[in-house]
Design a protein that fits this description.
This protein is elongated. α13 crosses α15, α14 packs antiparallel against α15 and α16 packs across α17. The chain is about 40% helix and about 15% strand. It is built from 18 helices and 19 strands. The longest helix has 21 residues. It is an alpha+beta fold. The protein folds into 5 domains: about 35 residues, no CATH class; about 50 residues, no CATH class; about 180 residues, Ribonuclease H-like superfamily/Ribonuclease H (Nucleotidyltransferase, domain 5); about 60 residues, no CATH class; about 90 residues, no CATH class. Strands 5-4-1-7-10 form a 5-stranded mixed sheet, with helices on both faces.
Length: about 500
Amino acid sequence: MKERSKGRSQEQAAVKANIKSRKTVAKYEQVGKLPSEMKKPRTYRTRKDPFEEDWPEVEQMLAAAPELEATALFEWLCRDLRPGKYQEGQLRTFQRRVSEWRALNQEQVAVLEQVHRPGEVLQTDGTWLTELGITIQGEAFKHILIHCVLPYSNWEWGVIAQTESQLALQRGLQSTLFRLGYVPRYHQTDNSSAATYQVRQGTDGERAYTPGYVALLDHFGLEPRTIRVGCPEQNGDIEASNGGLKRALVQHLLLRGSRDFASLEAYEQFIETVFEQRNQGRQQRLLEELAVMKPLTAPPLGSYQEVRVKVTRASIIRVQNNVYSVPTSLIGRQVTVRLYEWHLEVYFGQKLIESIPRLVGQKKEQINYRHLVGSLLRKPGGFRDYRYREALFPSLVFRQAWDQLGQWYSPRKADLIYLRLLRLATRHLECEVATALTLLLAGDSRWDETDVEQLLQAQPAVAVPMLSPPTIDLEQYDRLLKEATYVPA
């Protein structure tokens, strides 16, 4: 039409518009409309609907159970309703019919996008990262990330923890606030036990804030805010950020070429690097948030919780429903236990007695045979039925040695020999005793603790090199003091 307005012939206009037929140009010129304006919606089917006869029954099934999948419904149609009528190749057609029915008849819940105000709220959530397959010095590392996000700018930070405990929540929140240097108005979290508890048994989801969580927020000048029970979409921003962070971590791990780290500190540094890179593009909106936040003035809280417990007659302490052994000299004494994220420390007075890896979960035990071997040697008859006996096998070779001794000697004598082996492990290196047991188990002759002791004594002693005392030239310090010049501030 444009070419025709320039005086071109119908043939010339057809060539310019890449239309083969002059008659086509004449048709559109005659009606004075574009091809797109002449299209009409199709109201007829190009082929007969193969499911028309049985579709009312299918609709009834979908209305009664909307969660039914098209594949399962098609199998029901072929097997129960009309055996032999339909073929496997018609599944895709049936899926399109079901999808069209859902689009026209099945109501869904829409996502209600929220308006975020700068500097108003900091959201916190715990997300498990064990699925990343991280190892520390070759050992699988089970851990969770306490993840904090500002919804307006999407600025984020977090720390690694063992569980989503109140101590872990405190570490994550404190680390984030001190990284920001400012404090928003609200802190929002879900209804985890680290922040809330059920008010009464049998109530319909009614929960209240724990005193420890309220004290934590009061310290930093934050107001608590949580989501409704069973409504995770109200925490949608942090949930979406969890997914994005995990994808970013996977990509950085692929670029790194390894998922093994030399230490926990190295892995934490890796996490912080990923956070810093993700936050680089969020600085402009972050500045808008910081402009309306109040500066952080509260001092940092301690990185541990402190409890007082009494050592039982079994030389154990119970901390958060877990059992830990301590030296028998503390039996009947009150000790102070400091709970850190990854370990706990036992103090008597101001003296550190033990540092023990912290157990995750409840009703678990951490028994150190070095604490109890003396008592067991005085009462060897109590070993076989000792409640925590399995913890007295430091490694598999020790258990194999006890089983072998039980085949050679009477139960009492086998237990006594094994306990003497444990005493050797306390006086020598445990690995040396394990090596001696491995050598003896490989042979066929009978042995006892004296044979293990002989092997330990037969090992050549490592010669300690003699070092000559260094000569210190104090005149070098005199020359430095003479040559130093005073530079006024």
